[in-house]
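Known limitations

Files may contain more than one protein. Parsers should not assume a single record per file. Below, a two-record file is shown to illustrate correct handling: read the sequence, read the token line, then continue until end of file.
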Amino acid sequence: MPEEIDKVGSVSQSRYEQIVAELRQVVEQQTQGSFTIGDRALEIEPVRARGGIADGEWTVRQSLVRLAEDIGLTFSTVKNARWTASRWPKEHRQAGVSFTIHRVLGRIEDEEDRFAAIKTPPAGKKRWTPDEAKRRVGWTVDNPESPQEKVTAIHHLARDEEVAATVTTDFLKRPQVAAKVSAENKVRVVEEFTRDESVAASAATSLLRRPDVAFKAMSDDTARFQVNHAQNERHRQAREDFEDTSPVAPAVRHIDRTVEFLDLVTACHSFVAAAGRTVPGLRDRQLSDDERTIVHENVARVRATLDWIETAVDTGKVDMDDELARMLKGE
């Protein structure tokens, strides 16, 4: 076997094993030292049941802060050592298992489960690792392996709103990622991205220009109601604009008119103005068969509506036949 394959980093496999053996002794010494610190902190301030009354003039924190300062450690180090020592009576501490593993597995609430767990590494493992211990107690691991662990790690890293926004944007630019997002979740993403009114209006306008999208959207009763409401509001605004800007407005003002008359004139004015803005945009553009079909269907509805208007204006009869009613309803 080539020498470079039998290496770990810059050392040979045999030297690596020597280093591991040496450092395990160091870790064992550190573990014993940490437990000693915890035991002495417990001696100074035993762990009391919740609601217990602290003795003397010192609170627990004051005592531990003084101890930490006197031995040159941080308060959190002494506090964690004390807590870990309280979770592991001496007879249940395992030689060869680091203080870190003891601290993490100390989170197992049931004593029997806790004392049994430290003696039983996960299946296929010779010893506990920090990540395996964290998995056992449900903590976020440092080196995620499963998809769920990776998702949790991403959520942890993206707690900052700006980071989360950037990550989400980058992910959704990847077609293979977007393709795996369910339809329901895609809707939620769009809703989140269009909370801003101007963004929502721009997105809705673009989407409703797609005939298949517009058809499906108008199948929703609420959406259709909102569109009709918006059209009525637009007509009201158009009527005001007509009265302010139309060259025939002065003549109309002299007519004894009704609200219905104004609405009807405004609707015609709005339609002509909208067509005048829209139709020139079709220059040199070839619509698809589906698009042409939809436009022709709407033109037929417009023609039928115009005939109905002329009949109503000339005769006062506003009844419509069943075919016209179905056509106007889009059936």
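...continuing to the second record:
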Amino acid sequence: MTTAVVGRVLLIEDEVAIRRFLKVALPSVGFEVDEADRGRTGIERAATTAPDVIVLDLGLPDMDGKAVVSAIREWSQVPILVLSVRDAETEKIAALDAGADDYVTKPFSTGELSARLRALLRSRRAPASEAAVLQFGRLTIDLARRVVTVDGAEVKPTRKEFDVLALLARHAGRLVTHKQLLTAVWGPAHLGDTHYLRIAIGHLREKLGDDAAAPEFIVTEPGVGYRLTTS
């Protein structure tokens, strides 16, 4: 049986073994794969082939992957998922601040990678005009009325908690960094006040009935930020 095509992936990766593996693994779950083994080649392929999503290594031979992200962001908002052996928080934050949408460290599972790619594609295909009511499984967020319900039962987030949840919902499936959340909700003067964010997320999880150890709604990326699941 032929697998239905979910989207077209541009893989910018210099490791031959990783490219070979993903050229087999990703088509088996519905992705067409194009490839580039250099940063500049990848930028050119992104411009000429218009992929649906980009998977990008940071350690490229001709330029750093973060520079590739910045170059592509000058003219495109195509979702970019960084796939890198670099697991330091500073690297993750720098890549996300440069404009990447998600970050997966090597070694990785095909299941996690394909799930995150599908989430990025869903967010990209959302209507350009923001819907007033957003639905995520049992969770409903009415942005206009500032009402949140789980299984139809209303929960009562504070103003700041709602603002955090709304920002995560607007970027559902994508990782939102501490910096982005603190700047948008508390203002740029509070970039160091990550405890505000931890408290708000903790209260939201309690009100939504979300278990931090096995989250249904809000997933933590330790030291980096949070994402709202789209399933």
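Parsers that stop after the first record will miss the second one. For reference, the second record is described as follows. The chain has a mean pLDDT of 90.
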